Amino acid sequence: MTDLKLKVTMDLSVVLVVGFCFVLLGNGVQSDRDDKKLQSLPQDQPYRTGYHFQPPKNWMNDPNGPMYYKGVYHLFYQYNPYAAVWGTITWAHSISYDLVNWIHLDIALSPDDPFDINGCWSGSTTFLSGGKPVILYTGGVTMNRQVQNLAEPKNLSDPMLREWVKSSHNPIITHVDGMDSENFRDPTTAWQGPDGLWRVLVGNEMNSHGRALLYRSRDFVTWTQSKEPIHSSTRTGMWECPDFYPVSLDGKNGVDTSSLDKFTKHVLKASFNSSDHYVLGNYTTVTDNFSVDTDFLENGSDLRYDYGNFYASKTFFDSAKKRRILWAWIQESDSTTDDIKKDWSGLQSFPRSILLSKTGKQLIQWPVEEIEKQRTVNVSFKNKELKGGSVLQISGITASQADVEVSFNSSNLKEADLLDPSWVDPQLLCSQKTASVGGNIGPFGILALASKDLTEQTSIFFRVFRSNDKYVVLMCSDQSRSSLEEGLKKTIYGAFIDIDPLNEMISLRSLIDHSIVESFGGEGRACITARVYPKLAIDNQAYLYAFNNGTFDVNISTLNAWSMKKAQIVSFTKRRKPHLN
Length: 581
Prior knowledge:
By secondary structure, the chain is mainly β. The chain is built from three helices and 39 strands. Strand 13 (about 210-215) and strand 14 form a beta hairpin. It is globular, with a radius of gyration of 24 Å. Keywords: Glycosidase, Hydrolase.
């Protein structure tokens, strides 16, 4: 099917027509839009997103095995096909040609074998020699025993990779005596060393301490555990969904996971304490030694992908555009009862490119460039003064589904409040100094998903402090007034950003999409994601404002805001009988 080798830039309508024709070649294929069971969502759905990925209904959590294969982006994810709560976990499968518009395909892996009967849990994809993709995933054998399994595509000539076959060798990695088999999961993308051996990491906990176990294999079937984990920490618990990959020192392009380039650092990410933390370090391929620059939570260090609602992330190398792309599970912040009522739970973050900063001390994230194709109506202006205590409405766009970029500066920095040396926890500081608490320089920023009277608002803002001979910039995402609804998690998030406001603008980009706000401060040096459920500020009753609640004026150097088109998402699946464990 050479006509399916589509270019990413091809018009979406052509992509969907060709994709539809391709899927119809399989016997008994139907569109989920014609399946009444899959279209039984409640009518009132103000919190479903317009351009973030989510399945038609039911429960979704971790992103699994994202990859680019023969012109097609693939995303697998943890999915319960029967309810909006966790259970009967499968690997669902969707494809895209542009990371924005998606086609849902049949479930790739279901828990129907002894080695995964309690769930096909998280894992990764790896390209073997010759470009053959394979899946490594965790199988739940019993509720307190986990093993690692292998699956392969049934037909490599199918760019959609619609069918997967579990290996007859499963399970290929099992725990050894003395290991906690209940916390032994989430294999990483494997990489190949100069000796030809494959390496993979598996998350584990031993004596309440997190660690990443290292395994090696010649044939990808028989694996041997290294005597020592590649890294461990006494400051953390279980490491879920570990990730390990190189980043280029020049900060320009992504790097393949198996790259032997010497001009790289390595990232080790671990999910714990409801957040995705990472460390940077130097990895020696010959000895498999990983020497970190600063360890997890050491000496006040707290490097995270995102300081908000963002967990169980997974990256992949996009060989087409030489970039590394990051996905993450964005959990609901309402109740299980609410999820059951609306008949779905969970979002994926909008895919982000990820690079090493110029300083080499942290990572930089930014929405992939394909998002710009969704932009429609634009509102922009420059050099607008925001007086202390003022609010400015940004009108002319669809505020419930928008992309906003704004940069601020101040000529009054010398008036900034002094930073108390005890203020070391940015989240606590943001919780104490919410958007309604005035300071000298700040709070200033935007009010997203706000009601006309501002009784509902999600505020993303900055404060500037003086500390010795430098300035400290605090970024906050305040959900405390996001909804009049009771019983919601309205957590306030915060992060310090490595910005010198004397020599650069304080910039903010926010992706606003009905019930999610992803914010990128300092050109991606700090990211905060929030889930909100306004009662008043929904659809065309949502408004966007810039504000300054500080004593001194700040200046909006530039502001650009766009209405965003809705992503096109269709479902094509085979007719099959329900499978229940």
